[in-house]
Structures are given as structure tokens and as C-alpha cells.
Design goal:
about 325 residues, Chloramphenicol Acetyltransferase, 7-stranded mixed β-sheet, two-stranded antiparallel ribbon, about 20% strand, disordered N terminus
Length: about 325
């Protein structure tokens, strides 16, 4: 899925905001372009131009890449080529089981062919798992003194902006092909949202230049557009870091997966009251669990710790 220009921040017009706006795993409404190069083949064999994520997809679907003519630049095999080859193989297969095949078929099974955002999630999560050196650090933020105790998403976005200012390496994109980490001066927030049609990532451009009220309105607008399937192509691309809210149930911590080429994603869990030590005294405080996943190929653990520390510090502020 996820053409419009990628620049100006959209105008906000919504009002509602609550925890659980975003989904558990971020997946762009478009299939992200591959960022890795082609692997060399053994002498005498046909050279296959395909990224690791495409190779993984081919293995999953049982497709022989040497029999595919790539439609990408320079003959590169794209995910759509693999999907088309798999469909052609299915269409040409016998419609009924071969004689003597007694393999049982569960009578109560319900099958769903992935499409739209769910299909895009398959591609992006495959790329994340096969291409990225994923690492997650976790911490808790004391949000007991919040003046607006349910203003989760705007406060989390503001805190991520603070984290990006303290440690810019988490806010950008990485090319494994060139070995270049591009750190963005502006924070374009990818908001992972659960919709009736699947999980998508919508973009709040220049989030660091918006007030909390403006962020709140923009979140509500994107949430409505996602549910109505009216998000424009330019609103589901161009993000430099992602927020995923996993607090819809009782989950606290997670290992959220970012979509390459981005290098960082923050997951927020379900807040709860806990017994903690405050200034040497026992107290009951409302704590918010946080999980930060980063690409360890280009971001060090110390970088991630500085980023998360700044996020926690901003979240502890009363307003």
C-alpha cells in the first residue's frame, strides 16, 4: 500500500486521544524498499539479484529465485515478483488432491490470505527480522504526577522528541548497502496504529515543532483516516522513528520491531501502580513501562541508553 509530497506537516482537525491508539507491531501501509545488496552466487550458477528479505519470502513461498525475471532496477527481484511466481505455481497446480493422498484437513480451520496492511506487515517484519541486528533495552517512567493522566500518546511523542535531541542516532535511517546512518534534524514520528484493516504506520511530520494540543489533534485525525482508509500515500512514509503502544491489554514490556531503514522504535506498555522507593521512602506510584528496540549495526547500547534516559526524564515531568 503505502503519491503525495513527503514534506509539510498535515493540519490537525481531530480531538479524541486515548491509550491503545497504536498497534503492537508497526507495519507501514506500503512495502518498504529493500536496502541491502545482492549476494554473490557460486561460479557457473545464475546470479540472483535479491535482497535477504526477498530471499526469505521466496523460501517461505517455495519459489526458486533462479527461475524469476526481476522487475526491479537492474533486474533485481522484488517481493511482487516472488508473489506473482507463487501465485502462478498455485494456479497451475491440480485443483484436487492426488489419488492416495490421505493428509487430513481440519474441518474447523479458517484460512485468511494476507492482503493490504497485513501483507505489508508480512514483508516489513520479514525484512526487520532478516536484515537488522535487533536489540531492546527497557525502563520505567514515573508518571504519577501527570496533570493529564490519560494524555499518553502526545506525552510519549514529546518524550521521543526529547530523546532524539539527546541522542540523534536513534532518529534516522541506515543503509546497509552504503554503511551510512542518516540522522534527521527533524523528528517525523511514525505512529503504529491498529485499524479494522490491520496495523499501519502513519506519519506525524515535524513532531518536535508541534504543541501537545496540535499533536493530540493530529493523532486523532490520523486515527480516523486510518479507520476510514483515507490516509494519503505521503502520510504512511517518511517517518524517522516509530512509537508503538502495546497497552491495549495487560502487556507491559515487548521487543517491538522497527521497519528498515529506520533504526529505532519505542514501545509503551500498560501503566500500573507499583511500590517504589522515592527519596528513601516507600511510596505507591503510577509507573509506565517502556521498551526501546534499536538497530545494533549502527546504534550502540550506550546510545540507546542515553536516548531512553531522556525519554524517561521528560515523562516524569508533571506537564
Amino acid at each position: 500500500a503505502p503519491a503525495k509530497e513527503d514534506a509539510p506537516a498535515p493540519k490537525a482537525d481531530g480531538k479524541d486521544d486515548a491509550p491503545g491508539v497504536v498497534g503492537e507491531l508497526p507495519a507501514s501501509a506500503m512495502v518498504m524498499s529493500d536496502t541491502t545488496g545482492s549476494a554473490a552466487t557460486a561460479p557457473g550458477k545464475q546470479r540472483v539479484k535479491a535482497a535477504p528479505s526477498v530471499r526469505a519470502l521466496a523460501r517461505e513461498l517455495g519459489v526458486d529465485l533462479t527461475r524469476i525475471e526481476g522487475s526491479g532496477p537492474g533486474g533485481r527481484i522484488m517481493p511482487r515478483d516472488v508473489a506473482a511466481a507463487a501465485k502462478a505455481a498455485r494456479d497451475s497446480a491440480p485443483s484436487s488432491p492426488a489419488s492416495g493422498d490421505m493428509s487430513p484437513t481440519p474441518a474447523s480451520a479458517t484460512e485468511e490470505r494476507l492482503s493490504g496492511p497485513r501483507r505489508a506487515m508480512f514483508h516489513s517484519m520479514t525484512a526487520s527480522h532478516t536484515e537488522v541486528a535487533l536489540c531492546t533495552v527497557m525502563d520505567d517512567a514515573d508518571i504519577h504526577d501527570w496533570e493529564s493522566p490519560r494524555d499518553f500518546t502526545p506525552r510519549l511523542i514529546r518524550a521521543i522528541v526529547a530523546g532524539a535531541r539527546a541522542e540523534p542516532r536513534l532518529n534516522g535511517t541506515f543503509s546497509a548497502e552504503t554503511g551510512v546512518l542518516s540522522m534527521s534534524e527533524d523528528v517525523h514520528m511514525g505512529l503504529a496504529m491498529e485499524t479494522p484493516h490491520g496495523l499501519i504506520v502513519a506519519t506525524i511530520f515535524n513532531a518536535g515543532k508541534l504543541s501537545l494540543d496540535e499533536v493530540r489533534d493530529e493523532v486523532a485525525r490520523l486515527k480516523t483516516a486510518g479507520a476510514d482508509r483515507t490516509l494519503k500515500p505521503g502520510e504512511v512514509r517518511g517517518y524517522t522513528i516509530t512509537l508503538s503502544n502495546i497497552a491495549g491489554g495487560s502487556s507491559r514490556y515487548a521487543t517491538p520491531l522497527m521497519v528498515p531503514p529506520t533504526v529505532g522504535i519505542l514501545g509503551s506498555g500498560a501503566a500500573r501502580e507499583e511500590v517504589v522507593a522515592v527519596n528513601g521512602e516507600i511510596a505507591i506510584r503510577r509507573m509506565l513501562p517502556l521498551s526501546l528496540t534499536f538497530d545494533h549495526r549502527c546504534v550502540a547500547g550506550a546510545d540507546a541508553s542515553r536516548f531512553l534516559g531522556a525519554v524517561v526524564a521528560d515523562l516524569t515531568l508533571a506537564s
